[in-house]
Amino acid sequence: MDAETSNRTKKPATAARIYDFFLDGLHNFPADREAAAQVVAMMPAAPAMAKANRAFLRRGVRFLAEAGVRQFLDLGSGMPTQGPVHQIAQRIAPDARVVYVDIDPIAVSESQELLAGNDRAMAIHGDMRQPQEVLGHPRVRKMLDFDQPIALLLCAVLHFVPDDDVAYALVDEFRGALAPGSFLLLSHGANEGAQASVSTEEHDQIQRVYGQRTATPAGGRTRDGVARFFGAADLVDPGIVWAPEWRPGPEDPKHFAADPRLSCIWAGIGRLP
Predict the structure, then answer these.
(1) Average per-residue pLDDT in the chain?
(2) Of 8, 166, 263, 272, which residue has the fewest beta carbons closer than 10 angstroms?
(3) DSSP of 107-155
């Protein structure tokens, strides 16, 4: 084992790499797998929830690209694997441009390797809790034209910003920087779903795993709380629904077909006026 590999295997767990593990990805380390195992022990459906969320992202990006969107800003993106945004968008529109933003430097480094040779997709290290730093980043400004519509993607990431004041303020700031006709795609851990799938004690234990094993504590929100993120945006039909219910396709996973609320994820897309 070389020094770089040894150092990486000692890295603490991150939400991005735990998510990659749940998606059957290859870009995760022992600490991520150990933390993931703790979550699965308390919530066996966690990998299925991650796959349901990723399936929603794929459907949403496909919808946006078919609607004419050619620019995507993916905040808290993790790593572009297992059906990533740029592959979905560029399959429909080869001129689509994608910027991935994540707080985990290793995830960003590996993303840059995965995106090598694609001059219309890039990854930067950034903290979405600092909107002006992301929006003003020179590489973001070079890739995206903020005078034209942009799809802002916040997929299964805002539950890692449990402070309501911070979460709503940062989304307001990002939305305010976008041109009319832009879109907000959002999915979010649901308090209602968590109550249906695990006990309150187990839910609290899962939050402690993220809080203790990663730098990103987690916390769900209600449907009304999720709706606040959209502001004055016009919701695309069918509105804010359980992730498996947002325009499902025949190729999507069927884990929650009998009871979509057990996916524990609210999802929706809104068009900014």
Answers:
(1) 87
(2) 166
(3) HHHHHHHHTTT-TTEEEEE--TTSHHHHHT-HHHHHH--TTS--EEEEE
Contacts of 7-12 with CB under 8 Å at 24 or more apart are 8/106, 11/106, 12/213, 12/214, 12/215
Q: At what angle do helices 46-66 and 30-42 cross, to 10 degrees?
A: 100
Query: What does DSSP assign to residue 256?
Result: T
> Is the per-residue pLDDT at 201 higher than 90?
no
Each residue of 78-133: pLDDT tens digit? 888 878 999 999 999 999 999 999 998 988 998 999 999 999 999 999 999 999 99
**Cβ contacts of residue 185 below 8 Å, gap of 6+?**
57, 60, 61, 64, 151, 152, 153, 154, 155, 268, 269
CA distance 261 to 222: 12
Give the start-to-end residue ranges of the domains of the chain.
3-271
Listed in sequence order, the residues at least 6 apart from 93 whose beta carbon sits closer than 8 Å to its beta carbon are: 65, 70
**What phi and psi values does residue 255 have, to the nearest 5 degrees?**
-55, -35
Average pLDDT over residues 60-76: 98
Helix (H, G, I), strand (E, B) or coil at 36: helix
pTM of structure: 0.85
Cα 107 to Cα 33: distance, rounded to the nearest angstrom:
15
Q: How far is CA 160 from CA 25, 156, 157, 248, in A?
A: 21, 8, 6, 26
pLDDT value at residue 115 = 95
CATH topology of domain 3-271: Rossmann fold (3.40.50)
